[in-house]
Automatic annotation (TrEMBL):
NCBIfam families in the record: thiQ
UniProt keyword terms in alphabetical order: ATP-binding, Cell inner membrane, Cell membrane, Membrane, Nucleotide-binding, Translocase, Transport
One GO BP annotation of this record: thiamine transmembrane transport
ABC transporter domain sequence ranges: 6-241
Lineage: superkingdom: Bacteria
Name of this chain's protein: Thiamine ABC transporter, ATP-binding protein
Gene Ontology cellular component list: membrane
Keyword Nucleotide-binding carried by entry: yes
Organism: Mesorhizobium hungaricum
Molecular-function GO terms, alphabetical: ATP binding; ATP hydrolysis activity; ATPase-coupled transmembrane transporter activity
Keyword Oxidoreductase among record annotations: no
Gene3D superfamilies (UniProt xref): P-loop containing nucleotide triphosphate hydrolases
Coiled-coil stretches: none
PROSITE patterns, per the entry: ABC_TRANSPORTER_1, ABC_TRANSPORTER_2
Length: 247
C-alpha cells in the first residue's frame, strides 16, 4: 500500500550539500527536486547541468555531501542500484540489437525476458508509437524514433526517477514538441520525478512545473515555471532565455 502511494506520487531527489570538482571547476549543489514533478534544469553551456544529472544517476560521485532519493542515501550506490533511468541526447542504443531488444534491456541486461516482460516491452513500444518497428535496427530508424526507443527502455525499467539530458535537442521543432507531449502524457499516467535538461525555454514552458537555473556550477535561481516565465522572473534567467529563444 505504501509502495503504491509512493509509486503514484513519485520520490523527491535531494542533493544535500554536494560538491564536485572537474579539473579545477568547482560545483556545489544543495537543492531538492519535488517528488512526482517535472523540473527543467537550465543554464549556460558548461554551468554543470549534465554533471548534476550524473551525480543523481551515479555516473559521478560527490566529493562531499549526499545524494538522497526518496529520503534514502544513494551517495555511494552504483548507477544500477539507483531507482533512476536516464535518456541522453544520443548514443542511447546498441547498434547490433533491434528495437525490441534495445527496449528489453531495460527489463533485463542479459535479455532473459519472461512472458510478462515481453508484454511490458510491447506495451512500451505501443505507447511510444513504435508498434510494427520491433525488428528494426537503430540505423533503420529516424532520429526521433531512436529517441522513442530510448524513452521506451526507460519506461520499462519502471524507476520512479527519470533523467532526461537534452534528449530531443537534435530533433526539429515539430518532432521535439511531439516528444515533449509524449513525455508529458506518460508523466500524467505515471508521475515520475523528472529532471529535464534543456536549452530551450519553450520546452521548459511546455512540460515543466519547476525550473532550476545553474550558473558556474551552482544553482542561482529556482522556482515554478510560471514564476520564471513571468515578467518578474529571475533577471539572469531572462537574459539567458532571451538569448536562447530563437535557438
Ligand atoms: N569529463 C570531464 N572532465 C573534465 N571536465 C569536465 C568533464 N565533463 C564536464 N567537465 C567540465 O565541467 C563543467 C560542467 O560541465 P557540464 O557538462 O556539466 O555542463 P553543462 O551545463 O551540461 O553544459 P552543456 O550545456 O554544454 O552540455 C564544464 O566546465 C566542463 O568543461
Amino acid at each position: 500500500m505504501i509502495a503504491e502511494v509512493l509509486a503514484r506520487s513519485g520520490v523527491s531527489v535531494r542533493l544535500d550539500e554536494t560538491t564536485f570538482d572537474y579539473d579545477g571547476m568547482k560545483l556545489d549543489f544543495d537543492l531538492t527536486f519535488a517528488a512526482g514533478e517535472i523540473t527543467a534544469v537550465m543554464g549556460p553551456s558548461g554551468s554543470g547541468k549534465s554533471t548534476l544529472l550524473n551525480l543523481v544517476a551515479g555516473f559521478e560521485v560527490p566529493l562531499t555531501g549526499r545524494v538522497l532519493i526518496g529520503g534514502d542515501d544513494y551517495t555511494n550506490a552504483s548507477p544500477s542500484e539507483r531507482p533512476v533511468s536516464m535518456v541522453f541526447q544520443e548514443n542511447n542504443l546498441f547498434a547490433h540489437l533491434d528495437v525490441a531488444q534495445n527496449v528489453g534491456l531495460g527489463r533485463s541486461p542479459s535479455l532473459t525476458l519472461d512472458k510478462a516482460d515481453h508484454s511490458t516491452v510491447a506495451d512500451a513500444l505501443a505507447r511510444t508509437g513504435l508498434g510494427g518497428k520491433e525488428r528494426r535496427l537503430p540505423r533503420e530508424l529516424s532520429g526521433g524514433e531512436r529517441q522513442r526507443v530510448a524513452l521506451a527502455r526507460a519506461l520499462v525499467r519502471d524507476r520512479p526517477v527519470l533523467l532526461l539530458d537534452e534528449p530531443f535537442a537534435s530533433l526539429g521543432p515539430a518532432l521535439r514538441e511531439e516528444m515533449l507531449d509524449l513525455v508529458a502524457a506518460v508523466h500524467a499516467e505515471r508521475p515520475m520525478t523528472i529532471l529535464f535538461v534543456t536549452h530551450q525555454p519553450e520546452d521548459a514552458r511546455r512540460i515543466a512545473r519547476n525550473v532550476v537555473f545553474l550558473e558556474d556550477g551552482s544553482v542561482t535561481a529556482s522556482g515554478t515555471a510560471a514564476d520564471f516565465f513571468s515578467a518578474d522572473g529571475p533577471a539572469a534567467f531572462q537574459r539567458y532565455a532571451g538569448s536562447n529563444a530563437g535557438r
